Automatic annotation (TrEMBL):
PANTHER family per record: GNT FAMILY GLUCONATE TRANSPORTER, HIGH-AFFINITY GLUCONATE TRANSPORTER
Annotated InterPro entries: Glcn_transporter
Domain of life the protein comes from: Bacteria
Subcellular location: Cell membrane
Topology within the bilayer: Multi-pass membrane protein
Family designation: Belongs to the GntP permease family.
Sequence intervals crossing the membrane: 30-50, 57-76, 96-129, 136-154, 174-197, 218-243, 255-278, 299-317, 337-366, 373-393, 413-437
Predominant cellular place of this UniProt entry's protein: membrane
Keywords: Cell membrane, Membrane, Transmembrane, Transmembrane helix, Transport
Name recorded for this polypeptide: Gluconate transporter
Molecular function terms from GO: gluconate transmembrane transporter activity
């Protein structure tokens, strides 16, 4: 009976979001209340669980996500992303242009959320395609692949950070394993797959969606641009490396402990980049801060959705659903990582949003994660890979690709949907391979 209630609650969530078009934040809260009552919890206990789940989830990830949004806004508006794209374009040339676009999306995708990165980099895709007289999808799909993989797999993006918090996974290990899986996924689903798309798309380039770009003399230097984008990763890696090299120095160990915390690494990066990409380039501090306010507004609804998903997760935990799910897992011959991937992929197909699918899966899979002998870092990546599977007409990213590249629905399914599914399947293969090796 407990499992039936769980299934009905998930179906209700899907129906509210996809059929009734209810805001995801409100849908999560409604389902959390319904689930708690159906599981026989006293109403006051349900409210307490919702408050606890929302607070605990946001308390652990909100600062990192907000700082990431600020950094992404600065990287975008300063022209750093534009500089990286042009540098990669010049470095690789026409022969390897698809690999240049993939590498650009990979670097820019670390601090930028997918939709922001898409809007920012589309003009560069059009420019490169026009310069080399190449098909749009052949040039653009590798970059979109990299942006999508970074958004779904790796911190500090909302869904991975939420999953890391829920499952108490190690940030550094998750990022390291994620890179190992992300690189082949990007190469295969990006440059290699895009070679099959040369005949798909408009016969002539459409420039209606091109946005204004900064002139070359106003762009920051390439070293500044790349370092500002990658600095959180550099700081965290250095924090784990320094104690190995200078283990006896108490000051080094204290500094390493500080910068090993993602919040400190992100905050330090925002402070440094505020100077290197902002003040140093002649921008006023007030204007930079206005940009940060806009970044926070852009991400506010994502935070609310993550918090409400955490509330639903807490109701599942407090209702003792864990015992029923643990029993189901024990009786199932399916590998827990495969089960996590399949559950998330189904949610992705139903809900559309990769972020919503990922955080919903976290709530459903939280109990079994602590009853099964699974690597939590790989569990985060399995859910991340599943959250990218089968993007179709209920996903805003599907329509972004269709409209900006002038595709039909059939062509978008053939290109974008297949690419997302490839990434998800390759990600699953990588997770299972790492689980076997380690």
């Amino acid at each position: 009976m407990t499992i039936l209630v769980l299934i009905l609650c998930i179906l209700l969530l899907v129906a509210l979001i996809t059929w009734a078009k209810v805001n995801a934040f409100l849908a999560f809260l409604v389902v959390a209340l319904v689930a708690g009552c159906c599981f026989g919890m006293p109403f006051t206990t349900v409210i307490a669980s919702i408050n606890k789940g929302l607070g605990d989830t946001l308390g652990s990830v909100a600062i990192i996500i907000l700082l990431g949004a600020m950094l992404g806004k600065l990287v975008a508006e300063s022209g750093a992303a534009q500089r990286i794209a042009h540098f990669m374009h010049d470095l690789f040339g026409a022969r390897y242009v698809s690999y240049a676009m993939a590498l650009t999306g990979f670097i820019v995708g670390i601090p930028l959320y997918y939709n922001v990165g898409f809007i920012l980099l589309v003009p560069i895709i059009f420019s490169v395609a026009s310069s080399y007289r190449l098909p749009l999808l052949y040039v653009g799909m590798p970059m979109l692949t990299a942006l999508s993989v970074m958004h779904g797999f790796l911190p500090p993006h909302p869904s991975p950070m939420t999953l890391i918090s829920v499952f108490h996974a190690d940030v550094v290990k998750t990022f390291g394993y994620g890179l190992i899986i992300a690189i082949p996924a990007i190469i295969i689903a990006g440059p290699i797959f895009s070679a099959t798309l040369k005949k798909i798309g408009p016969h002539s380039l459409q420039f209606a969606h091109r946005s204004a770009t900064l002139p070359a003399h106003q762009l920051p230097g390439i070293a500044n641009s790349i370092l500002s984008s990658l600095l959180p990763v550099v700081l965290i890696c250095m924090a784990h490396l320094l104690p190995v090299l200078f283990g006896q120095n108490p000051l080094i160990r204290t500094l390493a402990a500080w910068f090993a915390e993602p919040i400190i690494a992100m905050l330090a990066t925002v402070i440094i980049s505020t100077y290197t990409l902002g003040l140093r380039k002649g921008k006023s501090l007030a204007k930079i801060m206005d940009g940060y306010v806009c970044a926070v507004k852009d991400i506010a609804m994502v935070l609310l959705i993550i918090g409400s998903a955490g509330a639903l997760k807490q109701v599942f935990v407090d209702s003792h659903l864990s015992n029923a799910l643990a029993g189901m897992l024990v009786s199932s011959s399916m590998h827990p990582l495969l089960l996590a991937w399949l559950a998330t992929a189904c949610l992705r197909l139903c809900l559309g949003s990769a972020t919503v699918a990922g955080v919903t899966a976290a709530g459903v899979l939280f109990p079994i994660a602590h009853h099964a002998n699974v690597n939590t870092s790989l569990l985060v990546l399995a859910i991340g890979a599943g959250s990218l599977f089968g993007s179709h007409v209920n996903d805003t990213a599907f329509w972004l690709c269709k409209e900006y590249f002038g595709l039909s629905v059939k062509e978008t399914l053939r290109s974008w949907t297949v690419m997302e599914s490839l990434v998800a399947v390759i990600g699953l293969a990588g997770v299972l391979s790492l689980d076997f090796l380690i």
